Amino acid sequence: MNSKRFIDYLDTYNDKTQYNYSQYSLLTGAIQSNFIENNLNDISFVGNINLKNPTKNQPVFLHFYPILENPIIKSSILESSILESSNNFYSKYSGSIWNTSNKQNAETQYSIWQKEHETNIYIPALPATITKTKQKLIDASINSLSDVIKIIDENEYNDDTEYNIDLKSLHNIKDELKELNEMIGMDSIKHSILNQLIYFIQELHVGNKTSDFKHTVLYGPPGTGKTEIAKIIGKMYSKIGILKSNVFKKVTRNDLIAGYLGQTAIKTRKVIDECLGGVLFIDEAYSLANSGDNDSYSKECIDILCEALSNHKNDLMVIIAGYEEELKETFFKVNKGMYSRFIWRFNVESYNSKQLMNIFKKKIVDQEWSMESENDLTEKWFEDKKDNFKNYGRDMELLLTYVKVSHGRRIYGKPVELKKKISLADMNDGYVTFTANKKNKKENNYIHSIYI
User: What keywords sit in the KW lines (predicted)?
Assistant: First the structure.
């Protein structure tokens, strides 16, 4: 052995079969010195040792059992084992900062710390593997959302049954499918979303370490339910695993573009990071870009968005909404690569007078009001006034507010039975207030534009 280090000498123990007297004396002397001088006889280090029958948990002492028969070392260890409380990790004789008490069996600082920090580690068992013992073929002739909902209602999902369609995923999104199907009108976009869903649910969009773009455009005027549609899409795809989280964040220009060059990049990237795994919804996306070519803030924002659309195609879905022509002349014009990344383009149709009437009726029911006479609410009433309802659903909500105000004025001091029952007079008076406020808004916008 060339090395003179004690640890190296110990490492050769298994290799040595013969010891001369001087080697044995050197080894026992060194061990005795270390045990006594460094307080290694403390049971905090050696544990409660059975010197007659060492266990496998004390391999060192199996190696040096003859040395432990040394009377000095043996008596020192036995004395420590008898005097020391098994509750103390560190000896009460130790100078460790964990100890503040010299009382036998007293709690030490270490034992107090240990109690405060101990925790039970729960490792959940893996779910039992379910063997598919049955098979069931389902007629998957689907032409509408109603067909999908019918399949769900007529076929209960069972874990032990193998199906020819992903019935479990369909059951997971039953509520969202019904909510979408119950939205008034929107036949075209419902059909488009159905096509997208059937494509995604079969994972046909997934390739070798990549996937197709999921980014979507909702073309249409304000008040046609685009935000609600975007939320439903996000919920559906998070529930079936196409998206990894149920994050849904709606933003506008102010959320993405800052007042100084350079800050826009920080602001935009922060929003993107917050939406990873879910949906980023940009309403009226054409506001991000001016029709002119000199808005460097807008270009910075849109360039970063365009980059994120590709870099995060697997874990981000961006949905934008707005008028088709305005989006093409602004948002898509600033960065030519944008258009090709939004491969899903849905048109949200404008509402006709009958659909406006049904939206208004639904809002009345949702707010637990009613009509005095259902005959007072007619399609013709809405047809005559349709030109003033350019914001469709939003205008119906605003109209109902003014109608309720008129109703409150009319029934004040009258029998309680009249409360929350809308009359034709309430409708007409509310409409007058609605148009008056709309006219004032236009005039204010005109005056404001003069000074810009």
Answer: ATP-binding, Nucleotide-binding
CA distances from 228 to 241, 250, 389 (A): 20, 11, 19
Range name among 13-17, 258-262, 335-339 with the lowest pLDDT average:
13-17
Q: In terms of pTM, does the model score above 0.90?
A: no
**Confidence check: pLDDT of 452 > 50:** no
**Closest alpha carbon to 181 in 144, 227, 222, 221:** 144
Please determine, for residue 248, whether its predicted confidence score (pLDDT) is greater than 90: yes
Say which amino acid occupies 140: A
Query: Which overall architecture, per CATH, does domain 137-347 show?
Result: 3-Layer(aba) Sandwich (3.40)
Tracing tokens 């009359």 back to the chain, one arrives at 423
Could you give the C-alpha distances from 81 to 217, 353, 424, in angstroms and in order? 77, 93, 96
